[in-house]
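Quick one: structure for this chain?
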Amino acid sequence: MSGESSEPASGEERPTSGEDEVEIPAVDSVSGFGIPIRGNDIDTDQIIPARFMKVVTFDGLGEFAFFDLRFDDNDDPKAHPFNEERYQDSSVMVVNSNFGCGSSREHAPQALMRWGIDAIIGESFAEIFAGNCLALGIPTVTADSETIEELQDWVDENPDGEIGIDVETETVTYDDRTIDVSVDDAQRKALVEGVWDTTALMKANAGEVRKTAQKLPYVDSTAIPEAD
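Got it. Here's what it folds into:
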């Protein structure tokens, strides 16, 4: 499992409005060491096998990330970047096409985050996986296949080289180079404006949520919980 990883280089924290103010950090940029995960169509079952999802909380899921790709039937290590010592402080994953496809399990990005991943750069992502990453404040940015392969090769040769992702300007910097990447418009807005944690926003505005629910004719008033 990863050791301490680089924290997202977030912009100023911007509180939301509501009866209970909460501070959700804006994720303007993220920086850290890279780790290349090669291969197309890596699905969520490969990211976190189903047998490890029988948990009450997500705590501890990080050690099971890519478990079946990392260990054989006897739990002996196989060749995989997550097992390599040189990548144990990495926090920026570089992947290929259709990463995170398959089931919609939110455990997949939870496992990656708990291993130490703060951002993912790839050719493309499954839509639900990208949405689940956004809910954790993890940017998923895209570039063409040639650009991704060049970056993976560079990371392989420079495991201690820093990668910087600027979410707002849609650029990635490494090795004195700056490349253009794409960030989904809704994702960029949510990250940069610090409104990506929808659960925290709803909790902060629990009273308003209750008032709205009370006005809906199809909602049973007895089923609406009291706001704290």
